[in-house]
Amino acid sequence: MECDMCGKQATAMAEIEGAKLAVCDACGKHGRIVKQLPRAAPKGPASGRPIVRSAPIREQSEISEQVRKDLPEILRKEREKRKMTHEEFSAVLNVRASTYHHFESGAILPDVELARRIEQTLKIPIVQTVKTIKGEWKNDTETKKGLSLGDFIKTKKK
User: Does residue 93 lie within any of the structural domains?
Assistant: First the structure.
């Protein structure tokens, strides 16, 4: 059993500020010892260091579609090539003029569905397929220690 205050091996149950906690010898001094716990044989290596086992990396590849990052420049060049205003070009693309202005300024990018429609209208590749590889490391320790109350509070020594 772990000490509720510091995370070390608990040796006793103590009443500290009205709460019964499993505590080690050092933390037991902050309250009144109610009951001694039986000492368990230490588990793990004699050096006290945790055994770390590394699992192999699991790679997951995911194929997704993304709108090109240089879309604002592409839209501006295409509009200027056709000698159109923002309003005229947005009407051709069937989007609101303010939305098109945001696309051209780079403030927002269209979603993939709208980008596909723009792609078909302008006959310019806008959507690109991206393969992302996600690697995952797993480090399992034999002696896992979670958070204890001592991680959150400061104790005063008497």
Answer: yes
**Is residue 110 situated within a structural domain?**
yes
Cβ-contact 44, 51 below 8 angstroms: yes
At 32 the three-state DSSP class reads: strand
Residue 6 domain flag: no
Query: What pTM did the predictor assign?
Result: 0.46
Pairwise CA distance, residues 4 & 17, whole Å = 14
Report if residue 133 sits inside a domain. Answer: no
> Region 12-17: what's the mean pLDDT?
90
| CATH code for the domain of 89 | 1.10.260
- pLDDT tens track for 134-156: 665 555 544 456 677 767 776 66
Helix (H) / strand (E) element for 121: namely helix 112-122
The two three-digit tokens of residue 38, written as one number: 């039986």
What b/e readout covers 55-88, taking b as 16+ CB neighbours within 10 angstroms? eeeeeeeeeeeebbeebbebbbebbeeeeeeeee
